[in-house]
Write a structure and sequence with these properties.
alpha/beta; TIM Barrel; Thrombin, subunit H; eight-stranded parallel beta barrel; seven-stranded mixed beta sheet; 13 helices; 32 strands; Peptidase_U32; signal
Length: about 650
């Protein structure tokens, strides 16, 4: 009979200042578990409602299961509850928070300040990127009203990030920054174009992604500049080369975008950044991971192999060209060859890389639209496609956007995360005691009452003890025989079956000890007296949509508070989108680049393929050169006259 006991200290009691967190997206339970297994220190996931990705909701039962799995590795689960709320939704949102707290969620990601006025459980609060955090004053305010982590605007450069870090207390509030994935062209939380033309609000989790549609551009004289191109579509974010610079600037949580992305993307991209951060940590002993365990992979991570629109580091190193994805908002893939001939579904290819059955190929047709098909069979330089290729001609460049061989590597088990432990075997009055201690100092002991016999071959007996006790396969722990300390009078002969029972009991006790050691991060206490908001007025872009949010801002010194755009009170011309992406700059028409050019307004049209205008009134582009910003100006389309966008 084995008996167990354990002792522990709180797992990973590390301050914000020195813990580095890799934060991965979870579309669902399967995706969240995969993110943890592939090295995430935390995952963020949507609940049953009120998340900024309305189509990525999850049950509380699944969220509880994810939290239980994550906490095995001292990893966190963050719930995205980051939409703006109507008055009649506040109580429902509060119930979601209560359920999330009971499910083991560690923090909420929120946008609506009305939530801070509700009686919530003591759960930690994180400020969503929808809060539009671009200035030291805004960041300091959010810290002082009780946020423990704030997601910075994607548009910031290293100097601006450093200024925000200097203005905030790194022990109280961690800075989070997106390092990979899709880029919103607008400042997050400052885009109302979807609601204006479709009634689907990005602030309410229903963005229609009008920025990914084709648009036509004309200058102030009506001269065409670009025709039916994806002018508001950006390449995807990739900060691989800037991770250490971001750490030095003050970022502590490194966020991967993608709560709508598939499982292969989550596995591949999470593993990639886990390896990148671990390499940095090897040379920066002043920092450490914010969770436990180490992941090993059965594949080599390659972010370019899963969905992306090309890569850019955006504005982290200042403004530069080539941030746009004008040709297509889809995953084009890497060039793999040139077409030598087309005959029905058979294509002769001069391939730069080997192709495989099941690959996905893409090409640009005669009209410039991206086309594609799956490969049915490869026979040397001749491939057979599943469908007839549309618009594929001799001389066209082929791109591969589905690498079947790589996808197959990710389809099954592709990672294993294990926690390093040390084992010590001691004598007791009536048998043996096995103590297991993990990398965080959590310990558990199991005892076994047994007869101990002197071995005939001490060296062999010692090897048997070490090997038997170190067999942790099938558990979340790993060790080597060299890390098994035999603190016994001699290497006793004990039947292997009894040693296995002792080891299993100790492992179960350690798992229970680690669960007991996990401490949910505390809710921050707001400063008293209440911090003053940086401004005394808020316009429709303040996103105030309920009375509690209005109460919050009044308490913090805001005197004039307009309703959110979603209240449908703005009927005139307003900025529907504010962005650092500048079409004048993209087309070499920037007054700072070309002498004599004035920043006159331009117009955007959304047209059908036959040239019929879908948006009856053009959108006006106004350029604030002092701030290097572009405003997309238009008016809300009245209910009942809303156009259908797209072809």
């Amino acid at each position: 009979m084995c008996r167990t006991a354990f002792r522990f200290r709180p797992a990973f009691p590390m301050s914000h200042a020195f813990a580095l967190e890799l934060l991965a997206p979870a579309r669902n339970l399967e995706s969240g578990i995969a993110a943890i297994e592939h090295g995430a220190d935390a995952v963020y996931i949507g609940g049953p409602s009120f998340g900024a990705r309305a189509s990525a909701g999850n049950s509380m039962a699944d969220i509880a299961a994810l939290a239980a799995h994550a906490h095995r590795y001292s990893a966190r689960v963050l719930l995205a509850l980051n939409t703006i709320l109507r008055d009649d939704e506040l109580d429902g949102a509060r119930q979601v928070v209560i359920q999330a707290y009971e499910a083991g969620v560690d923090a909420l990601i929120v946008q609506d300040m009305g939530l801070l006025e509700l009686d919530l459980p003591p759960i930690q609060l994180h400020a969503s990127t929808q809060c539009d955090i671009r200035t030291p004053a805004k960041a300091r305010f959010l810290q002082d009203v009780g946020f423990s982590q704030i997601v910075l605007a994607r548009e910031l450069d290293l100097r601006q990030i450093r200024a925000i870090a200097d203005a905030t207390d790194r022990e109280r509030c961690a800075l989070e920054f997106f390092i990979h994935g899709a880029l919103c062209v607008s400042y997050s939380g400052q885009c109302t174009i979807s609601h204006a033309f479709t009634g689907r609000s990005a602030n309410r989790g229903e963005c229609a992604q009008m920025c990914r549609l084709p648009w036509s551009l004309k200058d102030a004289d009506g001269t065409p500049v670009a025709d039916r191109r994806h002018l508001l579509s950006l390449k995807d974010n990739d900060q691989t080369a800037n991770l250490e610079a971001l750490i030095d600037a003050g970022v502590r949580s490194f966020k991967i975008e993608g709560r709508l992305k598939d499982l292969a993307y989550v596995k591949n991209v999470t593993a990639h950044y886990r390896q990148q951060l671990d390499r940095i940590l090897e040379t920066r002993p002043e920092f450490a991971r914010s969770s436990g365990g180490r992941s090993t992979f059965s594949f080599t991570p390659r972010p370019e192999k899963t969905f992306n629109r090309g890569s850019t580091d955006y504005f982290v190193n200042g403004r530069h060209g080539d941030i746009e994805s004008f040709e297509s908002p889809k995953f084009v893939g890497a060039p793999v060859g040139r077409v030598l001939g087309v005959s029905g579904r058979f294509v002769t290819v001069e391939a730069a890389e080997p192709l495989a059955n099941g690959d996905g190929l893409a090409w640009y047709g005669a009209t410039g639209e991206l086309q594609g098909a799956r490969v049915n069979r490869v026979d040397g330089g001749r491939i057979q496609l599943v469908d007839l290729p549309q618009g594929l001609v001799t001389g066209a460049t082929l791109y591969r956007n589905v690498d079947h061989v790589f996808e197959k590597l990710l389809a099954g088990k592709s990672a294993e995360r294990r926690v390093q432990v040390r084992l010590r075997l001691d004598d007791t009055a009536d048998g043996l005691a096995l103590t297991i201690t993990d990398e965080a100092g959590v310990s558990a002991t199991a005892t076994l009452a047994c007869d101990k016999a002197a071995p005939r071959d001490p060296l062999r007996a010692e090897a048997t003890l070490r090997d038997s006790l170190a067999k942790l396969g099938g558990t979340m722990f790993v060790t080597a025989a060299a890390e098994v300390v035999l603190d016994t009078a001699q290497p006793w002969f004990v039947p292997v079956g009894q040693l296995n029972a002792l080891r299993r009991a100790a492992v179960e006790a350690l798992a229970a000890a680690r669960a007991a050691a996990w401490q949910r991060p505390p809710r921050a206490v707001p400063v008293d007296p209440p911090a003053r908001y940086p401004d005394t007025s808020l316009n429709y872009l303040g996103n105030v949509f309920n009375a509690r949010a209005r109460d919050f801002y009044r308490k913090h010194g805001v005197e004039l508070i307009a309703d959110a755009f979603e209240a449908n009170h703005e009927d005139g011309l307003v900025s529907l989108m504010i962005t650092k992406h500048c079409l004048r700059y993209s087309f070499n028409l920037c007054p700072k680049q070309v002498k004599g050019i004035r920043p006159d307004p331009m117009t955007l049209w959304q047209e059908r393929g036959d040239g019929e205008r879908v948006v009856r009134e053009p959108l006006t582009l106004r350029f604030d050169c002092k701030k290097c910003e572009m405003h997309v100006v238009g008016r809300r389309v009245g209910k009942g006259t809303r156009p259908q966008l797209g072809d």
